[in-house]
Amino acid sequence: MVILGIETSCDETSLAFINTYGDTSVEPVSTLTYSQVDIHAKFGGVVPEVASRNHMLKIGPMFTDILNDTGIKAQDIDAVAVTNAPGLIGALFVGVSFAKGLGYALDIPVIPVHHLSGHILSAEISNPSLRPPYLALVISGGHTHIYTVTEPLSFSLHSRTIDDAAGEAFDKVAKMLGGVYPGGPFIETLASGGDPFAVKFPVAIKDSDNFSFSGLKTAVLNSISRADASKADIAASFQHTVAQTLTEKTFRIADRLGFKNIVVTGGVACNSVIRRIFSESAGNRNVFFPEKKLCNDNALMIAYAAWRLSAGKDLSQYKRLDFPAGDTMHEINV
Ligand code: KG4
Ligand code: ZN
Question: Lesser CB count within 10 Å: N end or C end of the chain?
């Protein structure tokens, strides 16, 4: 079966094709992603209206391009998978409307996919024998969530941030240190020349299973204004504190709930220091990451998630095209 994935929830317009062979295996064919980061960098962050307009400009020509690149004809597509939530409402509408239009024109199913299920399941693309049960930490621009994932595929929210998401903290701290959006890569580069133990930053709500990063952000601001250390040292110490916090909490929860396999995913999982600290302190646990290019928003993870979510189901139920877009629910099983 040929599935077309569509992702437009934030500032990446992305299309991907996968071939699926029953419920047993899947083969990525092609992914085409247009990132708007350079456009939004001028504004210091994503401007929702600008994001929607650029998705609108790009999605049609990109669809033509991916058909030409792969030699797949529109008539060969068996199903469309599209991110329908959560995300920027106008941005989601572009992808969902395009998907429904294709579904109607080609008379094929359109499978709505929760963006976070895409991030979580992307670890399986890079580790093909990986299957639930596992604990999944999603660290992205909008989320710092821990889900328990079980088979038959089901996601249950265990922990979340009570204020800023990890990626949001990277973006805001980068701004304080004179960087541009997105902050994660800027901080990682700046931190590579710094001492991660130069400044001791506090870890908030240490004993809770939830996360909080707004106190850390304020501590960084105070440290910058006191000029406690160089910018590189502050960036390295901030990054190290985030990595330690994420690792310690995730491992503690995994041990208590009896999960040996742990998935770390989302844009912030691109960070090499976070990946290293997770891997080095894993002990007898197994930590799985998507390869770096799959950590940022992409349509391959959406196509793959649709394949996993629809396994064993009658696909004709997805021909109704009556699903909503834009709900910011944290619960994936809807
Ligand atoms: O998953 P994602 O691409 O989009 C959302 O669904 O939010 O994540 C974007 C976030 C941004 O906050 C960005 O600063 C962060 O991921 N990020 C990083 C790195 N690369 C991207 N954070 C830390 N280190 C990185 N190397
Ligand atoms: Zn994302």
Answer: C
